[in-house]
């Protein structure tokens, strides 16, 4: 008893699993924090390339307090989003990644940069590229047509959420990998072997 906790989405959070994750986090990150350069290394990309921009945006979304590190509490917050967050919370997190400059909206260049980075990462990792029949620019245009309701060339948080909720294709393109913590640990282990 007391080892699992029910969440609103019927997922269970296992306290032992959380303790094991903490042990792994400390083992992989003895300083207790994860730095941007380590996070970028997980992606296995050139630190100055387009996928690096995506990694930086994702890192910034994880780094809640803005101290340029991800500590275990921030890591757990990401896990909480994965296990307990509803679609709207997950989309809010994705919006932070797309809004690279933090000005409250996503413009065409930010959208293109992230979509292009996702394409490059998927090509490098040989993940499913079922949407590759569309070019990056075609995807950007299709998303803007579907989501930019006031046609001002900017996607606000409200437009981002509404557009994703109303169109399954847009949702699939806008939401990011919803298991970022697992991805980080998996790629951390891979990078330790190189």
TrEMBL record:
A GO BP annotation: visual perception
Originating species: Xiphophorus couchianus (Monterrey platyfish)
GO molecular function, one term: calcium sensitive guanylate cyclase activator activity
Pfam families (UniProt xref): EF-hand_1, EF-hand_7
Name of the protein described by the UniProt record: Guanylyl cyclase-activating protein 2
Keywords for the protein's UniProt record, in alphabetical order: Calcium, Lipoprotein, Metal-binding, Myristate, Repeat, Sensory transduction, Vision
GO cellular component, one term: photoreceptor inner segment
InterPro entries: EF-hand-dom_pair, EF_Hand_1_Ca_BS, EF_hand_dom, Recoverin
